[in-house]
C-alpha cells in the first residue's frame, strides 16, 4: 500500500505530479479554465468587498500564497486568517464577503466552526477540500475538490500542492470573469500550469542532491527559513514540514523582518534556508543572505535555474527548480523543502508518518 516505499509521506511526495495533473486537467478545456461546481457570476465577483481565507496549518500556508496571487490577479483585498482565531476576532464579514475555506480532511473542527461563524455573518462559502462528502464540503455553498487521492501521512504534501493548483484555477477563472487579466497573461499561465507536473517530476528525479544536503544539516539544532512575497509563504510551509516530522526547532521569517529582531539568533553554524525564486525580489533577498552570512550562518539557497549561478556565488549550496511563470513558483519551490524535511527526519530516525503528538485530522478545538 506504500507503493514499495518505506513511508506514506515519501509515496505522497512522489505522487504530486499526478495529483496536480488530476486536479487541473479536467478543469482546463481548450485553453480555458472551467470550474464546475462554482456558481459565482461576474456580478457576484465584482460586488465582493473581500475574500476571507479560513484554514489551519498547511492549508493556512496555501492561503498565505493565495493572498499574493489573488490580490495581484483580482485587485480585491484578501485576508488570511487562522480558523482558530477567526471566531474570536470579531471578523468584519458582510454578505458581499467570500469565505474561501481550505481543508484537506474537510473535518478540521476549528475550520468548521469558523466557517459556520462566517455563514452566520452572511458570507458566501467556497471550499477547497480533498475528502469527498466531508462535513466542510457538505456545508459549503460551492466546493472545488482537490483530486489528490487519499493522503495518509500526517505531514501533508500532495494535498498542499493540489490546494495550490485549485487556487491558481480560481484566480484565473475569477480574473477572467472580472476582466482583470489580459488574454496574453491568461493564456501564458494556463499553458504553464500544465507544465508544472513535468517540472515537479524533474525536481523529484534530482532528489539525491537534497538527500545529500540533508546529510550535512540533519543535526542542526535550529533552522531558519527566509523569503519575501510568495517565497515567504513557501518558507512557512517548509518550516512547518521540517519541525513537524524532524522535531528540529525552526522558524520562517519574511526576510526583511530579520533586522527587526531575529537576526540576533544567527550565529556561526546556524542554518538558514534562503528562498529566492521570485526574480523580482532576488537582489533584495540576496542582500539578506549577505547579512546572515556575515554573522556566520550556513546558507542553503533555493532559486530558479536561471538565477542559480548568481546565487551560488554567495550561498553554501544552491538548489534550483525549473523556471516557470512567477505566480506558479510555490508549486515547484515546496518540493525540495518537503524532500529536505523527509530526509532530515529519516536521518534522525523519526516516526515520519506518525509524528509524536499529532493527528491527521484535528477534530478537537
Ligand atoms: O485537513 P486540514 O487541511 O484542515 O488540516 C489542517 C492542518 O491540521 C494540517 O494542514 C496540518 O498542519 C498538517 N499536519 C501539516 O502537515
From TrEMBL:
SIS domain: residues covered: 41-180, 213-355
Species of origin: Pseudoflavonifractor intestinihominis
Subcellular location: Cytoplasm
UniProt enzyme class: transferase
Function in brief: Catalyzes the first step in hexosamine metabolism, converting fructose-6P into glucosamine-6P using glutamine as a nitrogen source.
EC annotation from Swiss-Prot or TrEMBL: 2.6.1.16
Catalyzed reactions: D-fructose 6-phosphate + L-glutamine = D-glucosamine 6-phosphate + L-glutamate
Active site positions: 360 (for fru-6p isomerization activity)
Protein name from the UniProt record: Glutamine--fructose-6-phosphate aminotransferase [isomerizing]
Gene Ontology terms, MF aspect: glutamine-fructose-6-phosphate transaminase (isomerizing) activity
Full protein: residues contained: 247 to 611 of 611
Keywords: Aminotransferase, Cytoplasm, Glutamine amidotransferase, Repeat, Transferase
Assembly and binders: Homodimer.
Transmembrane segments: none
